[in-house]
Amino acid sequence: MIPPAFEYTRPGSVDEAVRALADAGEEAKVLAGGQSLLPLLRLRLAFPELVVDVGRIPELRGVREDGDTLVIGAMTTHHDVVHDPLVRRHAGLLAQATATVADPAVRHRGTLGGSLAHADPAGDLPAVALALDAALVVAGPGGRRTVPAREFFVDYLQSALAPDELLLEVRIPKRAGWGFHYEKFHAVAQSWAIVAVAALVRRDDGHIAEARVALTNMGPTPLRATAAEEALTGADGPGAVARAAEAAAEGTRPSQDLSASPEYREHLARVLTRRAVLTATGTG
Amino acid sequence: MTHITVKVDGTTYEDDVEPRLLLVHYLRDRLGLTGTPIGCDTSNCGACTVELDGASAKSCSVLAVQADGCEVTTVQGLAKDGEWTRLQRAFHERHALQCGYCTPGMLMAARDLLRENPHPGAEEVRHALEGNLCRCTGYQNIVHAVLAAAGQQVAEEATA
Lengths: 284, 160
Ligand SMILES: Cc1cc2nc3c(=O)[nH]c(=O)nc-3n(C[C@H](O)[C@H](O)[C@H](O)COP(=O)(O)OP(=O)(O)OC[C@H]3O[C@@H](n4cnc5c(N)ncnc54)[C@H](O)[C@@H]3O)c2cc1C
Ligand code: FES
Ligand code: FES
Hints:
Low-confidence stretches of chain A: none
Strand content of chain B: 15-25%
Radius of gyration of chain A: 19 Å
CATH architecture of the largest domain in chain B: Roll
InterPro entries (chain B): 2Fe-2S-bd (IPR002888), 2Fe-2S-bd_dom_sf (IPR036884), 2Fe-2S_ferredoxin-like_sf (IPR036010), 2Fe-2S_ferredoxin-type (IPR001041), Beta-grasp_dom_sf (IPR012675), Diverse_Oxidoreductases (IPR051452)
Number of strands of chain B: 5
GO molecular function (chain B): 2 iron, 2 sulfur cluster binding; metal ion binding; oxidoreductase activity
Order of helices and strands of chain B: EEHEEEHHHH
Bound molecules: flavin-adenine dinucleotide, FE2/S2 (inorganic) cluster
Organism (chain B): Streptomyces bungoensis
Keywords (chain B): 2Fe-2S, Iron, Iron-sulfur, Metal-binding, Oxidoreductase
Protein name (chain B): Carbon monoxide dehydrogenase
Structural class of chain B: alpha+beta
Strand order of the largest sheet of chain B: 2-1-5-3-4
Oligomer: heterodimer
CATH class of the largest domain in chain A: Alpha Beta
């Protein structure tokens, strides 16, 4: 199908982009990789008056280090995230999960910032950002602010971004010595997760000293499995991990759709949490 | 209208286009390059895959204005002087198509794989083609063709 008509602008800098968004108010839409926005436009589920293409703003792209923090530009493509040596070294969980997003052609265009701003609970990267305790730097007419991932995902397809705000970069604390694993359950190779689990584990002396577990598609936003995390602290073997995983679906609100019932999703959350944690500890 | 300059299969075009025009419609309707088909409305099938500045992209999921200043290669730009590429020959020889609707996209996706990984295994070929749907062949011969084009042993039973 053919998208509805809109005006188009392609700013060359963050300042220009922020000004274009501010001038257009609620009627503007940021275009990043377009891999979620263009399907929506084609199906006429979105009707922006102005599309602000941020695809040619050099400062939004690329990966750098800032002390103990890894900084990834919002326009860095999935393909570049997967292959970036800094991401692989300091945020292996993100590289691993991003490699499961869609297919190679979509990964060439889709971006980390677009995936987070889109705030789809079935998307793989929101839960990963939550597990990694990422911070999102945002620019608007009033200047810049930093939003922690735990406050960024507000509701189904709704982020903390105001219509006139632009996501600039994603800041991820480096985690030396943590094991990680992203366990995704999907029906078709290129498709979205029915449920997925991101696990980060720090081991100490044969037991789990600290764990961070986040769930994809277990509610209208990505969620931390806090009950499972608490039960994992001090866990020392597959049996203890299995018991902790039993708590993974606590406090979740999974949806019903063509792929799964809420009960089935809860079952998956428990099974996938056990697998993800065991693999993250190297005992899977 | 927005003015764009795009190089497609070696020829540079300048045009005024509506911002909402999809790249695939630009290629097919404006340039007459109908070798790139449209198979779905959901960005899922990969039939419309082209090369955009050296990387595969679904041309139904790119605006023509986003391709401004870029280089596009379609399936029609692969053969040189009427001579098929090794990959195209392998598709022909290995019967990697029936109706042929998915073939342009399959060729572009396979080309993308072989550029990054010139000697893939069967599993890697399958993963690289995960964004391209074929409703006819069952994929077997497509995987064999890509392996053959890469000079890999085609173990018929290993990929079953
Ligand atoms: C066939 C297919 C399969 C897919 N499978 C998966 C999957 O398995 N897992 C998965 O996680 N994703 C999947 N995706 C989605 C893919 O990851 C998209 O790349 C991603 O959702 C959006 O990124 P984008 O750069 O394309 O954003 P766009 O489509 O350009 O934008 C998406 C939304 O975010 C807003 N936005 C984008 N960038 C910014 C910014 N910097 N500041 C403010 N707002 C911004 C836009 O206004 C828009 O509302 C799939 C997509 C397709 C087409
Ligand atoms: S027509 Fe482009 S992905 Fe199906
Ligand atoms: S050959 Fe018919 S769709 Fe692939």
